[in-house]
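Assess the record.
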Amino acid sequence: MSDIFAGQLKSSIHRNVDHITENTQPFLTLPLNIEKVKTVREALKVLVSKNILEGVTSSKTNEKVEAWEQITLCKLPVILILHLKFFKYSNYRCTKIIKAFDFEFDLKFDSTLISSETQSPIERQYKLFAVVYHEGKNANIGHYVTDAFHVGYNCWIRYDDSSVKTVQNEDVLKPQGTRVPYLLFYRKSDIFLPE
């Protein structure tokens, strides 16, 4: 499983007077905060943006110093699962964020998102092959629907309980009503599926 789904994030803590502390963490799904953004690309940029840290001290002088954390992707998996955080937890309650959110069939990771040791440019390109949506106004109840690309039929198919039907590309990318994308499944573009 880890050969297919596992990636790695690198967390770097920078202090204005000290060395850089780095930590590598594995992931199977990449959670993206979507509350203040409108696209997957914007959510990825938020993930890797500098985060100012409070209360950090120098390891040499033990005095407070300016510091920030930066996350980059250092290993991309064969199958990338993006978890769009449409459920917001606060004050012991869970609410659902309902808004238009853009994602694309093709996803490319540029140098602003990845660390320098990440794979070659062709290994940074992904193709969408499935979407799991949550439908309903509330986070604690609702219905899940999946769209998946069928290679043999060369089209998108919607799986909704016992209903299975083909759907158009725009129906995949532009869910209607209270339906929001919850999980996006991408595969590396250099991985070919049999036809």
Notes: The chain has one domain: 2-188.
